[in-house]
Every structure is written in C-alpha cells, then in structure tokens.
Structures
1.
Amino acid sequence: MANSTMEAAYRPPIRCLKAAQRASEPPTVCLDWWKCRHRLRCSEPMPQGALPMSSRRCIFCLTPSTTKEHLFAQWLREAFPRTARDTRTIGLTRWGQDKRGKVYSMPTRAIRQGHSGTTTVPFVCAGCNSGWMSRMETRARPILRPLIYGLPHSISTFDLKVLSGWIGKTVMVGEYLHPNHIAIPDSERLRMYAEFELPPTWSIWIADYQGSKWRNLAMFHHMGRVDPDPTGSLHPDTHFTSIGMGRLFIQAAATSSSTTIVNENDAMRQIWPLPKTNLSWPPARFIDDGEADFIADSFSRAMNLPHGGSIHM
C-alpha cells in the first residue's frame, strides 16, 4: 500500500483536459494546451496558464516559422491597380486611462511608400498562408468582387458567413501591423484557424460607399480598454476596425466589456452575427466620405461616455 501511495504521489499531473476527462481526474493548468492534439476539439476555453506565444510564431496555429502574408490578397490588383508613386497611410488609435480615471487617446499615423495592397504581415506560417487562408480567399473572391464594384445582386446567408470569416481573418492579420498592441484574444484566432468563423461576440456591418477617401484599400484599427481593470491593466477589451474597398465599406467590432455596441445607421447592413434572410445589395442609401469617417470614429466618441454606456454608429 505504501508503494502504491508513493507511486501515485510522484505520477506526473494530467495536463491535457481531454485526457483528464477520460481518467475522471481534475486537470491541472493545461500548460501544453497549444501543443496538445486535442486543442482544436477541446470544449474548454484556452486556460490562462497556456504557453505564451512567441513573437515570431504564426498567430493562428503557433508554428514557429513564419512567412509574409499580404494583408490584401494579390487578386485584388485587378480592382486596385498600383503605380510606383503610390503611398499608404498606416494609422492606429489606442486609448488608455490615467490614475484619476481620465481617458486619453494615443493616435499614430505613418505614411509609407507603396500601395496599401502591398502591405505584408510577417506573422503567418507557410502552411496557413497557402492552406486554409488561400482557400478562404478563393471562396471570398466571387463574393467580394460585386460588392467592390457596387453591382446589384442578392447575397445568400452562406455567402455572408464566408464574407464575415474573410473580414475577421483580415482584421486579425491587420492587427499585427502593430504587434505590440493586440486586442483580439489568442482563443479567437484559434477558433478562426479551427472553424473558419468568428465568435458571436463580434459584430460586422457593411455599407455601399460612394466616396474617395476610403476607396483604395483603406484600413483603420481602433482599440482600447473601456471597463477599468482592478489591477490597473490597460490591456484592450474593445476593438473597432474600418475597411474601405472600392464601393464596399466594412465596420467590424468586438468587446468583452460591459459596453453595448449599437449601430443605428440605416445605410449599414449587419452580416455578423448572421441575419436570417438573404441580403439584397446595394441598400437604398449609400454613405459618403463624411459618413464613413463618422462611423470609423465612433469608438473615439464613445470613449467620452461613462463606463457601461453604448457605442453608437
């Protein structure tokens, strides 16, 4: 009996959640969660003690080696031709809170040589780049093309799901233009990798855009902390991303805070969470540069509200 007790005492703890369920034993912190072959089917959320991601690992599958992933796929060159004189503006607005609780903004903008379609992000592995992400681009291409050109048509709920996944993937990759300021949790990128779709906490709207400022593959990403953290952490709990592609304007947002995101703009059509019916396109009303800027700046305006308020677009 003594030997049996000692053997049990020195047995390595079960760190795999699935293995612990089969053994009917309580799992310890799953330190091998990222490596575990069960992780894509695991019903448990990613534990807080999981292995941290190396700055040069793939942001989706955690493979150590990475390649450069184009933020906007090469096939978009047909709609957005490029010249040697092209420049692109990269902008980021972060929000923080000082010790007195006052909210402040930290906007940054940089002008770089080259068309925005040439922007690459070196945080995706070759397997993801040429595998599921390439297949997602192939599926999204015939859906995006008529939206970019503003062609009248009907979009099925299946195509809206594909489009929402493509937008989510693009936002997740685009966020790593600023790898030191990440708002989207690792668990949501893993869900995209495993299931090719977004969690229901995301909201995505699209509009028919007939301006010039956002037309040429524009993207602006806002992030910040809305709810105060007891520990004083400023880690973002909310992110807003605006994307312009020809006649298509996209607004994607998600928050884990107590704030409610409300879109009252009748020109915007929500595509995620999925609507129950097909979407007729284009809507009766389009948006111009001023209205697109107003929508993109909605998070900036919302940060002046008390915590737990609403973000209106």
Note: DSSP finds eight helices and 13 strands in the chain.
2.
Amino acid sequence: WLSSRLPHYMVPDRLLAVTEIPLNRHGKLDLVRLQYTLPSADQPPHDPLNTECEFLIADLFAEILGISVTSRTADFFEMGGNSLKALRLLTQLRETFSDLTPALLYAHSRVGELANILKQGSRTFYSVYPGTDCSTVDIFLFPSIDSLYAPVNSRIAKALTGHHLVCFDFSAEGFIDRCTAVVKARQHHDRATLFLGYSGGGNFAWEVASRLGEQAPQALVMLDSWVMAEKPSAEEYLRWIGQHYANIDGLPDQTALHAYIEALPSGLGEETIPSRIVLISSADHEPPDGIMHRHWGGKTRGEFTVVPGVGNHFEMCRPEFLDNNIHLARRIIDGLSPT
C-alpha cells in the first residue's frame, strides 16, 4: 500500500509496534532511547545479570538513563549516556568503589565489563590503548583539569586511534612520581615517545619529562599550556568555567579541584628538557600582567615551535574543534621516528 503512494526510498523496510514513544525532557522524541528499545541485529546479545555488582550497576544505569537495564552487555553511552550523566554515575559508584576513575568508566562502559573491573578492586590510574602494528610512536596523554568532569582525554584518545597510547587519569597521591614510573616501565626502544597534554596536562607532561633526563620523549605537544607565576585557585577556575559553559552542573567536587591545582606544576623552574616542544596555541591573548604566559622556549634544549590552533582555550577540546587541533598534533606525531 505504501509503495503505491511513496517514492521507493521513503518506503520503510519494516514496521514495528511500540507500547510507548520515549520523550526527552523537552517533550520531543528521544531517538537514542527509541532506537535502543527496538529489536536490532546490531544490538549485542542479551546476557542476563548474574552478580550483585552487575545488578547494582544496572540499577544505576536505569536510574540515570530512565530506561530498563537487564543485560550484562548494556552499554551506558549507547543507551544515551553523556558526559554529565557519566559524572552522576561516577559520583554514585564512588560511594562504593572509591578507586573508580573517569578513564576506567569510559573504557569499560558495559555493565559486565565495569563490574569485572570494580570487583578486581583495580587501583590503575591509567588506561592503555594498544594501537596498530604499524604504529611507531608511544603517546603518553596527561590530564587537564577539565578531565575531572568531562571526557576530554577520551575524546583525544579516540581522535588518535591507531597509535599506542597511555592515558593518565589524575590521582592525588604522588601523581607525578607515579606517571614517571609508568613511562619508564612502558617505553619501547623500538618506538619513538611523545608526551601530549591539554592545558594543565602539558604542565604535568613537562614536569615528568624533566625527571626522565635523557629518557625524556623526543617531542612534547602542548595544547595551550601556560607557565604560571601564580596558579589559579579552585574558585577562580570555577568562575572561568561558568563564563564559558552554559551548564556547569557537572563540575567536580572541591576536593578534586584543590588536589589537582596543588599538584599542578607551574613551569617556573629553571630546568630544561632535551625534548622538542610544540605549543598548539588557542586564540586567547596572554594577560598583560605576565602572571601567565606561553613562553616555553626557555624550557627546552631542543626546538620550540608555536602552531596556531582553533578556538579559545576552553573550546580547543570540544568535539567541534578537536579534530582540527589533533590534526596539527598528528603532523608532529607522524614526523617522529624511533632513535
């Protein structure tokens, strides 16, 4: 009947009856939830929940997403989860599993996988993306303060798919020393090494490089990292965020902010590193009082290059700007070779 009245490309392949049309908070059709409730050959097979931990996680998924969750293969993000909802999930899970980090949540977002990680009591503060056999560069990605509440490092890691990558998640206890130890243990002599960090992540990357001596990476790529004569307070950071984001409900707690800022290297030391430093700068101008600047040239015994990036400081790792900025980083990565 429809084929006699519609063009062929508008005729549906099948018709499915549903008991309810899911709506979002604005009263409009919620396509993500609708698609997930429909039978599909692309959905993972149903695998019933069978442990207390899995039922706990499934209940939290259901509470936050507003849909029923009954399978171990249910994926938080495929069912409509986003960064703000992930922060709610992370906060609630940490009441029972204090070691859970954003990196682990984003790397293991299915009920069964996440339950297995939590049951192991893992204290891992980094995630490993193995890359492909043809990759010749090891990338160590350091966390910005934004990564405390948003999937910044996860976005960068996905944009660098194919490379061997270690993604650090901030932890308050001896973070720089622990990162240094991980780099030493995971460096491969048959591959080049590159450090990458957005904002404060670049400061952490430089500090770790300074502790490695001649084992420092061949290159350090900073996405708008700043040398700071005076570090911002948690309150100042919250104010900046409020000026650039319409919804700030997903901000980290004050304890996490204070711990990050306390551990954050200012970059003021006189040490230098042998690594080449490439600064991908934002469109923001440096303040005239000189409290913050991006003059990293005096921090390296190698080459220092500034490459104009896209967006202001807070926009650089948003999805609409990230690809262009990571493309600039890829040009540096692709130019490295094992020594």
Note: The chain has a mean pLDDT of 83.
